[in-house]
Amino acid sequence: MNHANLVDELKQRNLISHITNENLLKKNIDNNFISLYCGFDPTEDSLHVGHLLPLITLKRFQMKGHTPIVLIGGATSLIGDPSFKEKERVLNFDNKIDVWTNKISKQISYFLDFNCASNKAVILNNKTWFEKINILSFLRDIGKHFSVNTMINREAVKQRIKRLDQGISFTEFSYNLLQAYDFFILNKKKQVSLQIGGSDQWGNISAGMHLINRISKKEVYGLTLPLLIQSNGVKFGKTESGTIWLDAKKTTPYKFYQFWKNIEDSNVYNFLRLFTFLDCNEINQREINKYKNNQIINDKSYLSKYMTHLVHGEENLLAAERITNILFLKNINEIKKSDLQQLKKDGIPSIEVYQIKDLQDALVLCSLADSRTQAKNMIISNSISINTNKITNKNHVFHNNEKLFDQFTLLSRGKKNHCLIYWK
């Protein structure tokens, strides 16, 4: 079977935070094709980059012949996972959750193979079984296997209990049992023997393993992935301007591309291991040579292209590259109207105007200069460009041929400060 040493590969890629019965799990996946699952609660209408790691890890298992199951938490999202949250989630309604479930399911379908003959991926919704459950039966048959003492001592719960301003409701406290029951049902009906998730899910995964062992007397496994934290202490995927979503309408492909392009140098090779399918030996060699011939710049470029293509496809990657080339390499001839429309959305700052007196006024309106005097000095000092063309006339006024597609003008100060003027 073509899946030997998969656990060892995951370790080489720094993909394992916790793992249970490692030797038994390795032996199991070396000799059998298993089913594994990861859960995603639809608490928004899109996944974000923080969800990529478990999705790509499911893909790694599928490529080795194992069957990945994605569990959408249509029921558990109504409760809310308290794991390491500072305060209780805002509860959402069924109809909103159903809409979000459909959108997220479509996003997930791009990452896994749902059509292969032997081990096609499956998407399930835990609402299917929780809708039919009887509360008394659940408390009697499932709840009796859990000690409140143990649940209270879980780190995620202890942190909330210590907060006098927040605490934890019984609603969120019960989440641990619900996710454990998910694992139990999937093991019973789909023979799932492994659950994966972020390291903040360790308590929930352990609870599921405990429940299966108590009721079914079966050996199952848990594996958690590292939570990625940036040097500023913020979770990976969060920026000053907000979350980096997978939905192109919430985070444009250009902005998504730039997110990866601008990651810290210290993360480049770890991210190549975590997110790509490049061989680990090749990544190690690249890292050794990272300061030779701009290798680290090339590798960061490879990562941004790879991730944008993975999430948004070839066409959107090309658009993101065109926009980048225009803004940073000054190749205005390749611009398309759709690129400028994308830029207007959230690529760079933009303003809408009917008319502008002159270039000095435009610089002030675009917040590229604080005053007309400063704007004049910038023009004279050769730091201002219109559509990548340098302007040195301090009294310059806009011409119709400077309106791209009769609607857009790209105004730049230096190499990194831009504003898109949209002419109404």
Describe the 3D structure:
Residues 339-421 form the Tyrosine--tRNA ligase SYY-like C-terminal domain. It catalyses: tRNA(Tyr) + L-tyrosine + ATP = L-tyrosyl-tRNA(Tyr) + AMP + diphosphate + H(+). This is Tyrosine--tRNA ligase. It comes from Buchnera aphidicola. Helices cover 45% and strands 13% of the residues. The protein has 3 domains: 6-227, HUPs (Rossmann fold); 242-343, Tyrosyl-Transfer RNA Synthetase (Orthogonal Bundle), CATH 1.10.240.10; 348-423, RNA-binding S4 domain (Structural Genomics Hypothetical 15.5 Kd Protein In mrcA-pckA Intergenic Region, Chain A, Roll), CATH 3.10.290. The protein starts with 5 loop residues before the first helix and ends with a strand. It is an alpha/beta fold and 424 residues long. The longest helix is centred in the last third of the chain and has 35 residues, at 295-329. The radius of gyration is 26 Å and the shape is elongated. The strands form 3 sheets. It has a 6-stranded mixed beta sheet, sandwiched between helices.
